[in-house]
Amino acid sequence: MNENLTKINSSFVSERINKIRFVEESQAQLEASNFISGSSEIKNNVKFWKLIKNEFADEIENEFIPKAVSKLTIEGEVTGLEKIDRFNFAISSGSSMTIVSINPGKNEMNKLRESASFKNLHKFKTGDSALCMGVSVFDENISTIGEDGKINVISANNQKVITTIDDTDSEIDWE
To answer: What's CA 73's distance to the chain center, in Å?
Structure first.
């Protein structure tokens, strides 16, 4: 048996996490020890987690446990979470899409911050808000899909909506 295996302990979390992505510490990193999560609760949170040494571990228990080190509260249930680059993530929630950044500072805790927000991306023809159901990232382009049947393409660099494709579902009349 390989003695160099890292043992990870599971942890109880008092919220419903429904999206999760690994975070790279560096380009040369071989093991994943950080991740970001999104929840769908009354207070919808995005959290940055680190695997930390379990100071209470013995020979039976595992060596590392996940610990949330930073939290950002956002509007609406997290419906999508995708990586843009090493420190930036696109998060769909409610009728919006938010770009969340991780501050990689060495002297302070890694902190999450909202670097851009695109509110009310999705609306029904009646003007009512529609949920942003998902997000996808390719290079610097971010696409969102909503329950209104629209696809929005956003530039992460310019932080502007490049194009909107209406009526992607031609079989349904939304009026």
So the answer is: 12
Which one-letter DSSP state was computed for residue 72? E
**What is the set of domains in the chain, with CATH numbers?**
17-165 (2.130.10.10)
Burial pattern 24-34, b for ≥16 Cβ within 10 A else e, equals eeeeeeeeebb
Separation of alpha carbons 118 and 154, rounded Å: 9
* Close Cβ partners of 172 (under 8 Å, ≥ 6 residues apart): 149
Segment 64-114, tens digit of pLDDT: 778 888 899 988 889 999 999 888 999 999 889 999 998 866 545 568 999
User: How many angstroms separate the CA atoms of 158 and 91, rounded?
Assistant: 17
Give the DSSP H or E segment for 77.
none
Residue 141 CA to residue 150 CA, distance in Å, equals: 16
Alpha carbon distance 158, 22 (integer Å): 25
Q: Give the integer Cα–Cα distance in Å for 174 and 149.
A: 8
CA distance 58 to 159: 49
Secondary structure element (H or E) that encloses residue 98, with its range: strand 96-103
